[in-house]
From TrEMBL, chain B:
It comes from the Bacteria. InterPro entries: Beta-grasp_dom_sf. This is MoaD/ThiS family protein.
Length: 371, 98
């Protein structure tokens, strides 16, 4: 029988939640790396026992951990992230230029085909790649030099490269997203890049339709239709049907189109999930009701999913890395909250239950579907 | 023999209990002690000082013999009591909590 392994990064360590394919009884392992912030933890699609974790701390900096046995044991690998050449400067909050400096790894994206190849999205925003299982890291610096890096500026959470999507149909195509710069695409394995932000409109920047400067919170795609992208922007839920060449808004009837995560159903490329948040000033659900919204029409029409979720006095947030789906049928949907709950639905969102209620604030959730 | 006290998180990383004992060739300075520490425990590279700039991480402090040595130049000699192993060099995670 299939099983699922949910990899949870929190403010104070990592947790691994496992269940068989019925997904009704869960085992909680952890904390791993107790006391450290685990920004992201993700397994290799090519070898599910290979898992990478970003372990970080304001005191001790960055550590990258690697497991080769499905998360039972871990070994630190290289934490040396050096920008290529002279890093230069980017925009600072006050409009001055600020030196580029490494702070942490936000996102680790293992290759679809090679367990030893993994991409790292970092703050200050840049993309690194390792081809030796994390023993060494090299910046794909074309992203910063080709894409007007000096115009990027930090969002409230820092200037982070938080989304990396690898196109399963075109091996050289990579999408990334940066707060607050926007979305970018490479078609040659990360060597050269260009912004893909046409159609985005952001009232909080001087030119609302600028080529870069947009605070993109998350992008998602379905592996069978990788030219279709869904985006949760700072405000607005957006869609592209042409691999990011142009975007249009699909917020429709959402109670708020502000939010952080966005995810696509594992078997239905037009079924999309978001978690509306009241506003950029009030990072909690509207009306104190924790609602996932599902569109079965690729956007525009959204329905609230509330069964099993708190519908009063709920003021948690769901961060951009904290939502994922499994590949079982029916598709399982998972998300973690800043209140430490990890909720799951084994029926594509119709009903929800907490797997665990009292973890530290959840930073990231990833799911592995195991044979 | 040089004695070094690591903060608890780094003891876990290095898989050591209690103090770390190091042999340092030549002058005993912050740089030479940290160099020896990182050779003995490569996992600590980057956790105490930045790997590129060699600068101390801002929230860590170096104490010894009731003195804060955090701001002294890295090639200045450490107190004799540290160099002889009478007193440990304490690496402290300042601003505790969080």
């Amino acid at each position: 029988m299939s099983s699922v392994r949910v990899l949870v990064g929190t403010r104070k360590g990592a947790f691994i939640l496992t269940a068989d394919g019925k997904r009704d009884e869960w085992t909680i392992d952890g904390p791993f790396f107790g006391g450290w912030e685990i920004y992201h933890i993700k397994g290799s699609p090519a070898d599910p026992n290979r898992i990478y974790a970003s372990q970080t701390s304001g005191w001790f900096g960055q550590v990258i951990q690697r497991s080769d046995d499905g998360g039972k044991t871990w070994e630190p690998v290289s934490n040396r992230f050096e920008y290529d050449g002279v890093p230069g400067t980017h925009q600072w909050y006050d409009g001055t230029q600020h030196p580029w400096g490494f702070t942490r790894v936000w996102h680790l994206e293992p290759s679809l085909t090679d367990p030893d190849t993994v991409y790292a999205g970092v703050e200050d925003a840049a993309l690194f790649r390792s081809t030796d299982g994390g023993q060494s890291w090299h910046e794909l610096s074309g992203l910063r030099s080709d894409s007007s890096g000096h115009l990027w500026q930090p969002g409230a959470g820092g200037m982070c490269l938080h989304t990396i999507l690898l196109d399963p149909e075109r091996p050289g195509r990579i999408f990334v997203a940066i707060s607050a710069a926007g979305a970018f695409r490479s078609d040659d394995g990360g060597e050269t890049w260009r912004p893909i932000n046409r159609g985005l409109r952001s009232e909080y920047i001087p030119d609302p339709e600028a080529e870069v400067g947009h605070c993109v919170h998350r992008i998602a795609l379905h592996p069978s239709h990788p030219q279709v992208l869904f985006m949760q922007k700072h405000w607005d839920v957006m869609r592209s049907d042409d691999a990011g060449e142009s975007w249009y808004e699909v917020s429709g009837n959402l109670p708020s189109d502000f939010g952080f995560p966005i995810a696509v159903h594992a078997h239905e490329p037009e079924t999309v999930y978001v978690v509306p948040i009241k506003s950029d000033q009030e990072h909690f659900p509207p009306e104190g009701k924790l609602r996932v919204y599902r569109s079965r029409t690729g956007g525009h029409q959204w329905e609230p999913l509330t069964n099993g979720l708190p519908q009063r006095d709920c003021y948690v947030n769901v961060l951009r890395e904290a939502m994922a789906v499994d590949a079982l049928d029916p598709c399982g949907i998972y998300f973690g909250t800043t209140g430490g709950q990890v909720y799951m639905s084994a029926d594509a969102g119709d009903t929800w239950q907490p797997i665990v209620r009292d973890l530290p604030a959840v930073l990231s959730v990833e799911v592995q579907t195991l044979p | 023999m040089i004695r070094v006290v690591l903060p608890p998180h780094l003891r876990i990383m290095a898989r050591v209990n209690g103090e770390v004992v190091l042999e340092v060739e030549g002058a005993v300075t912050l740089r030479s002690v940290l160099d020896a520490l990182e050779v003995a425990y490569p996992v600590l590279r980057g956790t105490i000082r930045d790997q590129a700039t060699q600068r101390r991480r801002p929230f860590l402090r170096f104490f010894a013999c009731q003195q804060d040595l955090s701001h002294q130049p890295p090639d200045d000699p450490l107190p004799d009591a540290v160099a002889t192993g009478t007193e440990p060099l304490v690496i402290l995670a300042a601003i505790a909590g969080g």
